[in-house]
């Protein structure tokens, strides 16, 4: 008998297959449904019922479960859409929109903002859709998914993406449940809105469209006298009746209070206390900068100076250079005669009077053209040098020098015969002329372009003088070769002076000329002016300190985060063991204040704060540090992480646990925070005795509001009856409290096709719809009364101007774009119909929600 396991398996193959298939069906069909049921009803006996409709109550845990799955579904659909588009498809379901320019999904076709109240509303609308006969089975949901993926992904791939996106927390049955609920709710809501909208365009009558247009485009200027409600509290009864106290308490015990609502609210939001250490990067930089010695800073200054740093702006540098040129122009004037050759001077003196006059005119123009101190010093000796300059300008046409890159060679070739001739006829002049010629040739090679430009300008400005200068040149007798040689040598000397700044100094150059060239080189080098060490000392110190400060701060933050995380893990283990009765030593609490003093961080303990009040603290604006994988993109805010919430992408963020460290950054403030939550208080409905004082304060405030409104109406009536202005009817001691000429402002501020919000008057506290309605419905010269949005201030308003005039508004109203914008701004009977639609459903289903949306 064969007892091999394989033989046993072969003999019982069919029964085993039946059992395995049954287990698979149980695992993939029954278990998910059972899990859903258990998750919906877990702890229902201990949970507070937060919503009711159709006789059914919904616990806090079930609503949270629905909201969490909604967030997971939104994230999965977004990833699925991106994968579909990446494969070349495009979702083809109603409501899906994709911004091709920014490559971003802008709408998925279902609500993308997970929220507890929205979850209950979605269930309510889905139930109403089923009552109306609408139904979506699994086949319809599968067809919707196929259209959403445009046939690019198979069912297996969709399941794989779902498991990966939700980290195996959702299966297909959970996904279908979410899609069915949201699609049914969307169908029912769109059917209800069919009477107020045509697609995305709201339906409005022409009169409603005109009124909406006026709200966006008409502006008012007003005088306002504000009356504070709290000023009348002393006139109210501080001991209201017990029945009134009970009535107000019941009205607001399940409502969260709001600074922008006049309704009573005594419900307690979730609150928490926090500890944090803050590091200010500037403080770290200052500490590191103070450690550098003066020698180190000066060495860094010299190093950067050589690299071209610390140069002044061009305008300032040009001004400094001009001043420097003026000073240098004057200095060589007294020294130049000492460096000139006497023989050249004597030759120049013997020139004809006609030539001297031509030369002098040329000399007047040259200082404007020349920049270096050497050139200007030469210009100041007209008797010595400038005749040669003028004649040379004629002998060396402008065409020749720009074409030839090294004019020194050409000039040398032309001028050599003159030198040789002079050597024969005038031996006394030969040696200095040859030395000067060597230097002047080099100057001509570097400055030839500038000389040609000056030559062209002279030729253009005075052609008669040019012709006169040419005549002696062409008819020069041979007997005057010595004079021509002296003139040519003088020009060559000018050319060489500047060449010595650019090229190497010739071994045969004279010592005086080398010194003069070096001075000119220094002058040109100093053209880009630089900042002094004293001016940039702090800048250098900070730049050297920044890398060290950042490294030190990062090391300190990581060390602090490591200590806090270690304590969090040890405490979690201890609490877990304690919960099952295993004794152990509790971890030693961290003294963050002492650690902060050691690291140079600022310690603070804050709270208790809730999601609203935390906004008062600067830490609420800090953001999660992000990750390198996301290219340092910042994450959610401190408040979103600590209290839980939804990000802009629809991601649901769970509430941060106690003593779990969090690093956030305030980029604008230059601060980094390492924080944790040390205590928390769950949301709850307080007993009457706990909030009795708040209830009484609300009753008295409501009575004071009536008194303030009565006082405001009396002022308004007196002004209107007597035909006086607002200021005139007020007592003298109150007239300075009138705020005059506020505005202009409009009733509504448009933000494109997304809608509009109530207009803003910065000088007034929280103006609302009632204020705007009173202003724009009161005639100029008359007064009206309105409360602000939270009804803590009563305004007496007096319009003084409306602009533009009605005719201009009518002309503008003819523009189709302005009319469309008016339709999207809201208002009119459409809003009333929508409000009535929700109210009728709530009344029919007996809908209640014990907590309002947090403002």
TrEMBL record:
Biased composition (Basic and acidic residues): 243-258, 526-535
Top-level taxon in the UniProt lineage: Bacteria
Glycoprotein is among the record's keywords: no
Keyword terms, alphabetized: Membrane, Transmembrane, Transmembrane helix
Region (Disordered): 236-266, 317-535
Protein name as annotated: Periplasmic folding chaperone
Annotated TM spans: 12-34
Compositional bias annotation for Acidic residues: 323-435, 455-469, 480-525
Keyword Cell membrane: no
